[in-house]
Design a protein that fits this description.
With about 200 residues, this protein is of the alpha/beta class. Helices cover about 35% and strands about 15% of the residues. The protein has a six-stranded parallel β-sheet, with helices on both faces. The N and C termini lie far apart (about 50 Å).
């Protein structure tokens, strides 16, 4: 019997309830045994990150507490240079028992640029690529070339983004119900996103 693992990489700056909700819905719909969140140290497709990789890893750990199906990996935090998904996937495959099936979980916004990812063809060959719905990105907007080779999951579309959370913190507004309580406490105690 195989063990089905979802790999959900991202900047998570910060992780919010939208991330957690789509991960849980995807886990249930695909009968995944585990979802592993992988915060990137240096995301190759983003210009700047507001907080350190360690702070983002801590927030993801706090957000996953209480869900026995969620875990967090610090794999990319120890890598020099940009965090390429193909390297992460191969490391997971190397460390996993032979019967493990890997499901690469990405948001529809990221999927639009999927063909620009390093070794994207290998990602399609070496894992099941699962695209999770995002507000403003209909399934029809996904590149035709990959459309038939991915699994699209219609997830609840919540208008929360990391940039919105950061803006609300900067403006002194409440972020309750946008992030988990422990993540909000961490953001406040570490005085993140204030400038």
């Amino acid at each position: 019997m195989s063990f089905r693992v979802g790999i959900f990489g991202g900047t998570f700056d910060p992780i919010h309830l939208g991330h957690l909700l789509v991960a849980e819905v995807t886990r249930c719909l695909l009968s995944l045994d585990r979802v592993t969140f992988v915060p990137s140290r240096i995301p190759p497709h983003k210009v700047a990150v507001s907080t350190s990789a360690e702070a983002r890893y801590r927030m993801v750990s706090l957000a996953c507490e209480g869900n026995p199906y969620f875990g967090v990996s610090d794999h990319e935090l120890h890598r020099d240079g940009p965090s390429y998904t193909i390297e992460t996937l191969r490391a997971f495959r190397e460390e996993s028992p032979a019967a493990t099936e890997h499901y690469l979980m990405i948001g529809a916004d990221s999927a639009r640029d999927f063909e620009s990812w390093k070794a994207f063809e290998d990602l399609l060959e070496e894992s099941t690529v699962v695209v999770m719905g995002r507000p403003g990105v209909p399934a029809e907007e996904l590149p035709e070339r990959i459309g038939a080779r991915i699994q699209y999951v219609a997830t609840p579309l919540i208008e929360i983004s990391s940039s919105l959370v950061r803006r609300f913190v900067r403006e002194g507004r409440s972020i309750r119900y946008m992030v988990t309580d422990p993540v909000e406490q961490f953001i406040r105690s570490e005085r993140l996103y204030l400038s």
